[in-house]
Records
---
Amino acid sequence: MTATADVEHRHVFPSKTEQVAAARRWVASVLGEEHPALDDCVLLTSETFTNAVVHGGGTEVEVCVEADGDRVSVAVLDEGGGALPHRVDDPCGLGGRGLPILEALSDDWGFGVLDDGRLRVWFSLGCSGAA
């Protein structure tokens, strides 16, 4: 399966750390192995999905992919465990590198709390694969 222009693909995963790899594989299958932004999308999906599992406080994580000829957008939605994305300034810490990676590789990213309380973190990349 490869992404069809202007079609949003959605998949809901259990909110478990062992599902991070499944989310990466799903995004890769949606985009297709020849997609120019594949590697960055898979890495950023891994980062945002992991944060959703660790901080989302729920039982499910939804991943949405929308691709057209110029751009890929990925959104990861968790059940909104109350923690908003924020930088952790601890260079020796075990975590806290997800947002800097997101900022470095994506063309644009952001987050918002939906009306139902879920947190949506999204990023977009140009199809050249270079941010």
Note: The first helix runs from residue 20 to 31.
---
Amino acid sequence: MICAGLGSRSGVSRDAVLAALDAALARHHLDRAALDALATVPRKQDETGLHAAASHLGLPLVVAAQGALRDARPRCLTTSKASFLATRTNSASEAAALAVCGAQSRLLGPRLTLNGVTCAIATTGNQP
């Protein structure tokens, strides 16, 4: 499984989400077809731009459970004070991607930030 974890400022557009997603995928030599899901944290579950991007891609937007986010925290590569204050995760996008991919998942690299959107790619097993 390959999942893109997303965080954002309030009110980001679908296009901003897709641009950040494409940049994060390109960083790891992947394209949209590699994705199985998008993920986010409960605080962002009503963010219209995230839902619009998921719908555009035909992918589920999975809201990670708090317990799974907490368990993913030690595996995050980035520490953001703002993210921690808002979500109690070191990085909302990294923790969401890891949480949705499961306990044995790993990040392909640190999150990317672009135009108010953060995006991190996680995988399970021996995939990229």
Note: The helical segments are 14-27, 48-57, 66-72, 81-87, 92-101.
